[in-house]
Design a protein that fits this description.
108 residues, mainly beta, four-stranded antiparallel sheet, two-stranded parallel sheet, 1 helix, 6 strands
C-alpha cells in the first residue's frame, strides 16, 4: 500500500446540500487556503468582485502544480471561510447563494 494523501477533518462543511466539485487553475504566485472564497480571477476574493467558488485545498504560492479542487455548491461554515481582505464570509453570503453556495453561522 502507498499513502497518497492525508485527510484532516475540519469544520468547513456545514450541511448535507449536494456539493458539486470542479477544478481551477490558480494564477502563479497566489497562495490559497482551504475555505478561501475565490473570485472570478481564481484568487481570494477582495472587497469587490464576482464570487466563483470555495477552495477545498491549500496551495502554496511557490507550488509548481497550480490546479486545485473547488466547490461550486454546498453548505459551508462561515467561521471557516476566508477572503483576501477584511471582508467576511457573511459579507459575501448573498453573492454565494446565487451559486448555490450557502453560508451558515454556527450557534455560539
Amino acid at each position: 500500500m502507498e499513502t497518497i494523501g492525508i485527510f484532516e477533518a475540519d469544520n468547513l462543511a456545514a450541511g448535507g446540500f449536494p456539493e458539486i466539485r470542479d477544478t481551477r487553475i490558480i494564477p502563479a504566485a497566489t497562495a490559497i487556503k482551504r475555505g478561501d472564497i475565490l473570485g472570478a480571477d481564481f484568487k481570494p476574493i477582495k472587497d469587490e468582485g464576482t464570487v466563483d467558488s470555495i477552495a477545498l485545498q491549500n496551495l502554496d504560492a511557490s507550488a509548481t502544480i497550480r490546479t486545485i479542487v473547488v466547490a461550486e455548491s454546498g453548505i459551508f461554515n462561515a467561521n471557516e471561510l476566508g477572503t483576501g481582505d477584511t471582508t467576511t464570509a457573511m459579507d459575501w453570503k448573498q453573492d454565494l447563494r446565487k451559486l448555490s453556495i450557502y453560508v451558515r453561522q454556527p450557534a455560539p
